[in-house]
Amino acid sequence: MQRPSTTTTQALLKAALGRWRESLLVLACLGSATYPDASRAAESEASEASIQAAYLFNFARFTEWPANAFVTKTAPLNACLLGRREALANAMLSLNDRPVQGHPLRFFQPERADELKLCHLVFIAEADDRRRAQYLQMLASQPTLTVSDIDGFAQEGGMIRIMRVGTRLRFEINRAQTQKTGLKLAADLLNLATTIVEPESGASR
Q1: pLDDT (tens digit, 9 = 90+) per residue, 59-107?
Q2: What is the DSSP track for 139-150?
Q3: How many of the other CB atoms lie within 10 Å of CB of 153?
Q4: Is residue 77 a contact partner of residue 60, using CB atoms and an 8 Å limit?
Q5: Which of 12, 82, 150, 201 is the 20 to 30 A CA-CA neighbour of 162?
Q6: Smallest Cα–Cα separation from 101: which of 145, 56, 65?
Q7: What CA dihedral angle connects 60, 66, 69 and 71, to 10 degrees?
Q8: Which three-class secondary structure string do you get for 95-125?
Q9: Helix, strand, coil: what percent of the chain each, to 5?
Q10: What is the pTM of this model?
Q11: How far is C-alpha 162 from the geometric centre of its chain's CA atoms?
């Protein structure tokens, strides 16, 4: 018999490859499992990381990048991770080479600041406020979709924050920031967001 965490991971990644609207809702439901036993903390972390990786995959599927963001029409779509998050890194690696709008998904962790220009999507797991602000400043002028699960991320200038609402994962979007960099989010993705953040006037919806 498979361990629960393995079964959940496979189900999540399978759902991520399905129809996008249905898969996001399925992911949210699968993310509602709770792990009251402390001995299952590692399973809980791996399960949540798999859900986050599947969300990232779907965010990429329903974001339109400017044509000049890719060297060629079939160049890789680079998904990056800033900060230490081993479980999420492992989950993202399992999605390597999956097709995203005609581009193979490629995951890597930048080791130098100049490598950030290669990233089309970045998950920022950096807990240090100053370093996180520096990353956002460096990425502010390029078409890179920035995602995190840190409180206040969308208000800080990040684009999408994944957050826990009750026992489920949801997300909020800073639409103004995506527009500034030339990114276009699918209307249905915007509709699925819990909140659309408008930094200058507070949050709407």
Answers
A1: 999 999 998 999 999 999 999 999 989 999 999 999 999 999 999 999 9
A2: HTTS--EEEE-S
A3: 23
A4: yes
A5: 201
A6: 65
A7: 110
A8: CCCCEECCEEEEEECCCCHHHHHHCCEEEEC
A9: 45, 20, 35
A10: 0.81
A11: 7
- Two tokens, residue 81: 């991770």
Tell me the per-residue pLDDT of 120-173, one tens digit each, with 9 for 90 and over: 999 999 888 999 999 999 999 899 999 999 999 999 999 999 998 887 889 999
SS3 of 201, please?
coil
In this structure, what token pair is assigned to residue 35?
A: 């792990």
